[in-house]
């Protein structure tokens, strides 16, 4: 069968790298890159490091307002899908590329499947929350990373063709952790010692588009007596410069360009603590057993909070400082909540089974719906 996979941003390249590998064993894959991320550090380096095949289509949509970006993707994806006529369209995560892929497929009556389905922050002011809900509601097959995600879909009345597969980012992290340890020289390059520094990521609209919130976070970073490494997303860099905050931050924190996947894994793996506003990084911190202080008011990954490895502080300066100085994972409880590294195998096997690709589904020994 022919599967069209739609990707467009950094974390989608990471997720697709492991799923594509499994799918391509028994299927034809057409990889469509919307072009939402286009800088070398946000895009090409991931294809190089993760060995992802060249996309069959690069739509070059680039940046823009949400409506313009999503609309342009929808228009161009429809053209490609009409040419390729895939049996299935596969989308990942919660970005504008995800929503455009799911919408384009469902409007053409092509079956579509969503990887990382069922996540909810219950904060509809986040563009990602709207993307998640709409994508789930127009997808035919829903691959959930956790039981909590399955339950969230149930609450919204979605119970058919829902599969608990585990999280594909676990697959990718397990696959690349040792490679990163061997290949990345990031600790040496930045002169860092094991557990002697913090890593921050900031790119959420709620933090970057509100000068007061961004200023609070930066003041907290400046008042903390810690070595903070902060790889800066291009949108954050632009806004820091616009607000006139870049120079003062640069003198108190180590700012770097966005890092490739291998450097970033190694950086996280040896950090004393991670301060993200990214969703995926909270999960990676949990898997790597690094304490996490999240610069958001809510999270889709509530398991990391429940198990005591993550705490939410939003953009409140005092809360950030207090948490960095005092937060310790409570019970040291650590479970395989995000799966065992075979989520991509389960996804491929499920697709093969559902589409009657019997020889393929028999070959891949897997227990669907039972982590
Ligand atoms: C997007 C996703 C977000 C995801 C993140 C992963 C949406 C709504 N948001 O956020 O959920 O967590 O990707 O990183 O889909 N820019 C560049 N070069 C690039 C990419 C972006 O300069 O290669 C700048 C542009 O100024 C652009 C801005 O960053 O306007 C925002 O980029 P965009 O892709 O719209 O959203 P992200 O913030 O990256």
Describe the structure.
By secondary structure, this protein is α/β, with parallel strands linked by helices. 47% of the residues lie in helices and 13% in strands. The protein is built from 18 helices and 13 strands. It has helices spanning 10-23, 44-50, 66-84, 96-107, 127-137, 147-155, 168-183, 186-189, 205-208, 211-223, 234-242, 246-250, 261-269, 279-287, 302-306, 317-326, 343-354, 358-363, and strands at 2-7, 28-33, 57-58, 88-92, 111-115, 141-144, 162-164, 198-200, 228-231, 254-256, 273-275, 292-294, 310-312. The chain has a seven-stranded parallel β-sheet, with helices on both faces. Helix 4 links the parallel strand 4 (88-92) and strand 5. The protein starts with a strand and ends in an 8-residue tail after the last helix. Residues 361-371 have low confidence and may be disordered. The structure holds uridine-diphosphate-N-acetylglucosamine.
Radius of gyration: 20 Å
Strand portion, in percent?
Answer: 5-15%
Number of strands: 13
Mean pLDDT: 94
| Main structural class | alpha/beta
Per the principal axes of the C-alpha atoms, what is the gross shape?
globular
> Low-confidence stretches at least 5 residues in length (pLDDT < 50)?
361-371
Main pleated-sheet profile? 7 strands, parallel
Strand order of the biggest β-sheet: 3-2-1-4-5-6-7
Give the termini separation: 27 Å
Q: What small molecules does this complex bind?
A: uridine-diphosphate-N-acetylglucosamine
Compact overview of the structure:
With about 375 residues, the chain is an alpha/beta fold. It is about 45% helix and about 15% strand.
